[in-house]
Every structure is written in structure tokens, then in C-alpha cells.
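Notes from the 1:1 (GR / supervisor)

We went over the backlog. Supervisor wanted to see one worked example end to end before approving the batch request, so GR pasted a single chain during the call. The sequence is below; no edits were made to it. Supervisor asked that the structure be written out right there so they could see what the output format looks like.
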Amino acid sequence: MNVKITPTKLKGSVVIPPSKSMAHRAIICACLANGKSVVSNVALSDDIVATIGCMRNLGAKIEVKDGVLEIEGSAQKLSSNLTFDCKESGSTLRFILPIALALNGGMNTFVGRGKLGERPMKIYEDICKGQGIEYIDGSLANANHLLDLSVKGQLKSGEYRVDGGVSSQFITGLLFTLPLLKGDSKIIIEGNLQSVGYLDLTLSALKDFGIDIVNDGYKVFSVKGGQSYKAHDYYIEGDYSQDAFYEVANYLGNDIEMQGLNADSLQGDKVIVDFVRALKNADKSEKLTFDGSNCPDIIPVFALACCLRQGHTEIVNISRLRIKECDRLSATAEELGKLGAHISQGEDFLSIDGVDKLQGGIVDSRGDHRMAMTLAIASTVADGEVEIIGAQSVSKSYPNFFDHFEELGGDIDKNL
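Structure output shown during the call:
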């Protein structure tokens, strides 16, 4: 789907969608607990649908109605050949692979679409090969590099050394799984840990569902084996990753009231509030530098804000944007550049000199939900129509984004 947006200012109130990150975690914990849990305020984005389907594969019973999930959990051993459709969700793949190795003795095959087959998985590959677990990755052998990964074997407790600079999702997957194993385990973090805020969300969810993890300064996580998840009712709070689009929209002169957020949230992407405040308070001649290493998801739209700030801004330590649904670092620089932004890229940074306004034009989401939404917000400060190719990609995390955009006064032509 392509959309054409006629520039106009947005005004009104919007309820921020529930946190996708917290929904993944709460659903998985509930599915591993004995008994009934109710997880409410869930948005059925493509990623969350993928996680629901995969956990059903592992024996959980999940009923979905109006954003409420009634879950009868199960952590029973299986012995089946199972196929897990992860769609385009890196979280689903990396969270559930080790759980499958703990619970299912048969072959576990993971499939998906988009760029998922190209996302780094070497941490799990090394773990599997080190433990004698069969690991067959045919993703790069097929023409479109679609995910085609199979693992078979029993994950064992023990000492796990994990590079913290690739993705915290591997650590989260192990934190979900190791409590289920016989024997105690340790996860030792090597290198610089990225996205600490996401691990805080994981540890918080695990605690709520009765799992005890000892965190020694984010350097070592000690996990007792033989633990049991406890059923727990859970409400999903608003998502600061999605709020970021509206925080930036307001910085650009729109007038939107955001509802449904938790001011005390542990979400790492809550830093968008501080980032935007720093832009507002800065002198025009002041060079600003922002470290994006712990909040990669908000960088494309935050870069948009920087493009309209008078002065020079750099966003650094963001090389991980290159391994998302698309190469977001290149996409951000090139697509905003098409609209007249003065933005250039390095290997792990964006360099930006502000302009007064953007121009209209044709831009490409590159199949990435966060790029599509960023470009839509950019249209509010353009001097001509903005056509977005591949706008349907918003379904990955925020399916009704364009409905909300229109309700706030956005002028969208979807009949292209």
C-alpha cells in the first residue's frame, strides 16, 4: 500500500498503543506458567501474533478477544517436529528458540519473511554447537534469504558467555529459558551491553511471574534451575517506542495529547522525552551529540526532529540500526534527504544540519514500520505532498497508525 499525505498540522488526543516489548514478555511468561493468566491491553500487531502462534505450538492455550488474552500456560516436555512462523519478528525468533530447545525434543524449525533470515544469530549458533545441539541454517541458501533455521537437542544449564553488543534479545531468550532447566546457570556478559532498558523489562516481567534472577551489575546474571513460573494477571502499559512519533510531532509544531503512558515506566525508549527536551532547550549555535546505543527504535524519528532544529546535531553509536527490518541508518539518511533534510551517515552515526522546513516528494519505507511512521510525521513539516511507498509496513507494530493519523486531522489518500 502506498499513501499520499497532503501536509497539515495534527491536533487532538491519542491513546498510545500498548508496549509491544512488554506484550512479548508477558505473553511468554504467562504461557510458561501453570494455571490461568489474563494479559490485557494487547495490540495484535504482526509481531505479537507471531509470538502467540509460536507459544501455542509449545502447548499454551490462548484465547484472544478485544485485546485481552486468556492464557492457560504449559511448560511440559514435548517430542514433536514443530514449525514456528516468526513472521518478521526478531524478538519472537530470539526469545523462543532457546525455550523450544528446553521444552521440545523434536526438530524445531523457524521460518519467517522480510529480512529476518539475515538478522545475526551467531550467538545461538555458537551455544548450540558448543552443546552438541543440531543447528541447520539454510536462510542464506535460498534466493530471498528467507528465514529457514532448524535446531534439535536439549539445552543444558551451565555458564553462558554472551556478547552484549549484538542484541539484548539473546540474553532475554536465555533468561526466559534457564530457570526451566535442571541445574543452575550463569550468563556472563562480554563487551559493552546494549539496550539495558530492554533487560530491565525482562527482569521485571520475570519477577512478576515468580522467577528469581540475580543481576550483578548487568555483568553476570545468576539463574537457579528448576524454577516454576506462576500465573499472573498483567496489564500492558503504553509504548514509548510509539509515543516517540508524537513527541517529535509536537516538537515540529503539532498539538497532540498522548494518553495511556506510565510516567514511571522502565522502557528504555522513554528517553525520547529527555531527547526532545534537550532539543527544545539547546542554543541554536550549540552542537549536540546524542548516544543512541540503548534506544535504536526511536532514532529514525528522533533524527527527523534534529533535521528541523537550527544547528548541528550528531547521533552516535547506532550501527545496530543497520540490522533491523531494513538498514535503518541508511534509510533514515537517504529518505529524509529526499525531502530536503541535510543529513549524512557514517558507519555508526548520523550527522545533521538543521533546515527550516522539508519539501514534498516520493519516499520509500523500505518495508520498515518505523520508517513509514517517521516519514508520515515528516509530512507535517513539508511544503508539498509526501508519497510513502510500502506504508502497509506499519502493521508490524502499529496497525492503526494511519487511522489515528487521520483522526488527528491528517489528510491521507490511500487510493493510489
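Supervisor's comment: Residues 189 and 261 are 31 Å apart (CA to CA).
Batch request approved.
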